[in-house]
Design goal:
By secondary structure, the protein is α/β, with parallel strands linked by helices. It has two domains: 4-99, no CATH class; 102-209, 2-Layer Sandwich (Nucleotidyltransferase, domain 5). Helices cover 24% and strands 33% of the residues. The chain has helices at residues 54-69, 107-112, 116-119, 153-164, 182-194, and strands at 4-5, 16-23, 31-34, 43-48, 80-86, 91-96, 101-103, 124-130, 136-140, 147-150, 170-177, 201-209. Strands 1, 2, 3, 4, 5 and 6 form a six-stranded mixed beta sheet that branches.
Length: 212
């Protein structure tokens, strides 16, 4: 059961091989990875059952990323994609995650390791803690703002755009709750990709977090 999205910008891929993460209905906490047909020089399609949680999925995704990165046979043009059902087209769609780096750190711990020079390049860090798009705690990391709770995705978009008026270089970090279903994770990623965020940049670091 693949995750569903309402629209995908990527609808066709060539030179592919696939891996599968299965959900076992008899053992809700178990997950099975089948990667027998993966070829390191191809585009990888990772097919994940939408009922799995990020806690179950992400360790396997990181394992696959490392396998490809450490392969002796490489193709710099080969990408990694999650496979989805595009409901608008009633066909498959794909979301790229080639450069995504998953971390179990908190955002604050992550940036404490940045050098002063690296931090000075960023005017504002917005941290979205996503359990769902129905209630979004947003943390502003300038020391001047606290936490703002947004109630829907329109508020999220408008909030970021409002900050764009005050800060020149905004970095948006996203913390996904580890108990989020893969369906909700993909839906949120698809929605964020559809937003026009101007010069705000969504980080390629994704934080898999415990709910606060």
């Amino acid at each position: 059961m693949l995750p569903e999205i309402s629209h995908s910008n990527i609808t066709e891929l060539n030179d592919v091989s696939a891996a599968y993460l299965f959900y076992d209905e008899t053992k809700p906490d178990s997950v099975e990875l089948n990667r027998k047909n993966l070829i390191s020089t191809t585009n990888w399609l990772i097919n994940v059952d939408k009922r799995l949680t990020l806690k179950q999925v992400i360790p396997h995704i990181k394992f696959l990323q490392e396998k490809k990165a450490n392969s002796s046979h490489k193709n710099k043009n080969a990408k990694n994609y999650f496979t989805c059902n595009d409901t608008s087209r009633k066909n498959l769609g794909f979301i790229e995650f080639t450069d995504i780096m998953y971390s179990n750190q908190t955002v604050r711990d992550f940036y404490e390791k940045y050098s002063k020079k690296e931090r000075e390049k960023i005017d504002q860090i917005i941290y979205l803690e996503l359990i769902s798009l129905d209630s979004i705690p947003v943390h502003f990391d300038t020391g001047k703002c606290g936490t703002r709770y947004l109630t829907n995705e329109n508020d999220l978009l408008n909030g970021i755009k409002s900050d764009l008026l005050h800060y020149g270089n905004i970095k948006v970090d996203i913390g996904y709750n580890k108990n989020l279903s893969f369906q909700d994770y993909i839906r949120i990623k698809s929605k964020l990709k559809s937003f026009d965020l101007g010069h705000a940049k969504i980080s390629n670091h994704e934080f898999i977090i415990d709910s606060q």
